[in-house]
Every structure is written in structure tokens, then in C-alpha cells.
Design brief:
By secondary structure, this protein is of the alpha/beta class. Helix content is 27%, strand content 23%. β2 and β3 form a beta hairpin.
């Protein structure tokens, strides 16, 4: 099966108080951590499992788009980013219309590893479920994955809720990473304190 690995990098960081995705973390822009993990999963861990993956970055930021293209990574420009999460989902589904499933990854989870990404995808496919997501120990959360059957529903989404409403379904397969810290996301500037971790340096 072909899975589109989508890095969601369109946010404006309103709660953060500025464009957080280009904020430097140990000398690298925040979004590059997630991008690196997806590329490593697609190139090093998943081909041996027979899983065909393509990494795509959805963004509304010129610097991110340019940097990704320079590295040969597919970019989808989101000209409706002001609407919220739903616009990014629609852009991804439309651009990666030939995928058998779409896996969406926030660009503000810098601790998520390539190994966890690969394990999440392998186990999801083995489950046979139509959709799945991760669990941070308190609630269901992103990353999330939707098989092709969900394409029409994703294309009808509007606003800033994204696909969260679908994840409440009893059909949702749930993945719990061994280290729930990997799902820590950066919402506020003070969250950066948490990132003084040796694995990021």
C-alpha cells in the first residue's frame, strides 16, 4: 500500500506568539525534526516492510517550502491556511489523491522518532482498521492515519477541528508509543524548556 506521510507545517503559532515552526531548537528550525523523522522512516525503516511511502510537506510559509524543495521533498502550498487545520487536510488529500492512506503528522512534535513512526504505520496496516491515531497516556491525539475510504469525508472538512471528530469512532485503532514524551508538542514559548533533552542535541 502507498501511504502519504504528511507533515502539517501551515500553522501560524498564534498561541506561541509568532511563527514557531521556524524557531531554532538547538540550532535547527523546529519543523525540521519532524521532517527528518518522516524521511528516515520512509527511506530506512519502511521499504523492508513492503510499505511504499512518500513524504509531503503542507505549508503556507515560503521559507519552509523553499528549504524542503531544496532537499527534494514534495511540497503542497496551502493558500487557505488561515482557515485552520481542515484546509491542510484537504490540500494533502487532493495532492496525494493516489494514496491508499494518508498519515498526518504535526510539525511541532520534535521528539517523535523515525522508529516510532515506522512502528505506528506497520501496526496500523496489520490492524485492518479504517483509521488510527496515537495516544499520549491521557487522550487520543495526532499523529493520525486514515485509509482511502475516508477521503471524501476529509475533503468535506472545514474550520480548525481537523479530523479529530473521526477519531472518536469505535473503529479507531489506537497506538501507544513506548515513550509518550515523543508526543509532546510545542504550543507556547515556555514549552521550549522541555526540549533541553540530550536526544535533541
Amino acid at each position: 500500500m502507498k501511504i502519504a506521510l504528511i507533515l502539517m507545517a501551515s500553522g501560524f503559532g498564534r498561541r506561541f506568539g509568532g511563527h514557531k515552526l521556524e524557531t531554532l531548537v538547538h540550532g535547527r528550525p523546529l519543523y525540521t525534526y519532524g521532517m527528518k523523522s518522516l524521511c528516515q522512516a520512509a527511506q530506512a525503516f519502511l521499504p523492508c516492510s513492503g510499505i511504499d511511502c512518500q513524504v509531503t510537506v503542507v505549508t503556507a510559509h515560503a521559507a519552509i517550502a523553499s528549504a524542503c524543495r531544496d532537499q527534494g521533498i514534495d511540497v503542497v502550498w496551502n493558500d487557505q491556511a488561515g482557515e485552520g487545520m481542515a484546509a491542510s487536510l484537504r490540500c494533502a488529500v487532493e495532492a496525494c489523491h493516489d494514496a491508499g492512506a494518508w498519515a498526518f503528522f504535526p510539525a511541532d512534535q520534535p521528539l517523535l522518532t523515525a522508529e516510532t513512526v515506522a512502528d505506528f504505520l506497520r501496526q496500523f496496516l496489520a490492524s485492518g482498521a479504517p483509521l488510527g491515531c496515537m495516544h499520549n497516556g491521557e487522550r487520543r491525539c495526532s499523529p493520525a492515519i486514515f485509509r482511502r475510504i475516508y477521503g471524501p469525508k476529509l475533503l468535506r472538512l472545514h474550520g480548525d477541528t481537523g479530523g479529530r471528530q473521526f477519531l472518536r469512532s469505535p473503529q479507531t485503532w489506537v497506538y501507544r508509543p513506548k515513550q509518550t514524551d515523543e508526543l509532546f508538542d510545542i504550543d507556547y514559548r515556555e514549552d521550549l524548556i522541555f526540549l533541553n533533552k540530550p536526544e535533541l542535541k
